[in-house]
Input
Amino acid sequence: MAPVVLWLGIVLFASAAEGPDGAALYKRDCAVCHDGGANTRAPSPEALRERSPEAVVEALNGVMRIPGSRLNAIERRALAEYLTGKKLGGDVTGSTTGRCAAQPAFADPASGPAWNGWSPDLNNTVFQSTRQAGLTAEDVPRLKLKWAFGFPDSNSAWGGITVVSGRLFTGGQNGTVYSLDAKTGCIYWTFNAVGGVRTPITIAPREGSGKFTAYFGDNSAFAYAVDAFTGEKLWSRKVEEHPVARITGQMRLYEGRLYVPMASYEETMGTSTNYECCTFRGSLTALDPKTGAVIWKTYTIPEEAKPRVKNKAGGQFWGPGGAAVWSSPTIDAKRGAIYVSTGNCYSGPFQPTCDAVLALDIKSGRVLWSIQPLAEPPDVSIAGCGPRGQSLYCPDGEAEDGPDFDFGNPPILTKLPNGKDAIIIGQKSGLGFAMDPDQKGKVLWQYRAGEGSANGGMEWGSAVDSEHAYFPVADNFRAKPGGLHAVDLATGERVWFTPAP
Output
């Protein structure tokens, strides 16, 4: 069969009359910097008016991607048209072309090859056998491009790919979620979320209906349930009210509960002198998958932030804050536990639950134990506030200069060769760990895979099979390159290493 290529390019937005108020969006999200505030590098409204609306959208995907990702596609259009006084045409999702002529029935995801979310299992092993995948290592060099799909209003494909029932499900930077035909790439349906959708998508049967639901979260801290066949919204829920909260890890469904991890943008907001940092705390929330109702919510930092010191501009600085949960929770059915990993503290005092693995009671959310394998140096870190940080946003008299050694990896629950359970996890420090879930996460071994840095070490995916742990390293700003390490599960010793090409 000849390769089939489907390319939708960058197609922008719906009519401005259907969108929100661009002036209100500018005042809410942009004026603090662009109206002559502390950020002198921000173009004035007069300068922005000389640009094209396409250029403004491109900036929201590029240099302004952090505030931009809190806007959905229609809001970006409204803002770009307001700033430039010019119109944009086209469709916000790109789905006016490339639609599927028909849609087959939705088969049970368990009935065929599937990759459902971040990992095909609840233990986050990120492993699939040849039998399950229908693909061997020998097949990989012979693969050829069959089709390609361009995401409108995006400079990257954010959401990972879920593959079930002959379909692909993925989210976009502009808040559009797509259901695509796996063989051709044509579009079955699209759904517009409030914010950008970075989470892997969970597909699961809807109790008593014979239908299936797609669950995902967005960069505005909303969780969604939509019909997996039609894309129709069943419910949505604002899980966290903090203004810069976001969901990046897969929401895990298990025994009638949907578990939602919560992260944020707060540690990156060092250019805004009038923002009072840091009040965000990471959390895990259990929702009713039928309605989105909250069953329980547990914060990774127990105490609420309190006023601490002033920043260099005289504004209030709060703490403690941080310990975001960036990745997917891990289910331990045998122990009735759910594991999450956390990032650095944003503000002091330094907490034992930052850069940590936490075990929670799966029914109540009560914290059973937590382990912080690297307590030194204290990892309190926000953008622009290192030892030489000049930002007026930084706390006066305090150097918020921790190494930024988040756990972006999810905990991986697996069995060692001797039959004992262990948690495997990689960290931005460049270290990989094996922990004992029966001894409150006691470290069994650790392996130095990379030098580590704020942009290095293990950022996201590690994996295990029956014999090895696999640690991918992203030391992109270091002298030594990254690569992939295979480590003996029993001993933590290197088996092989392949450098990045």
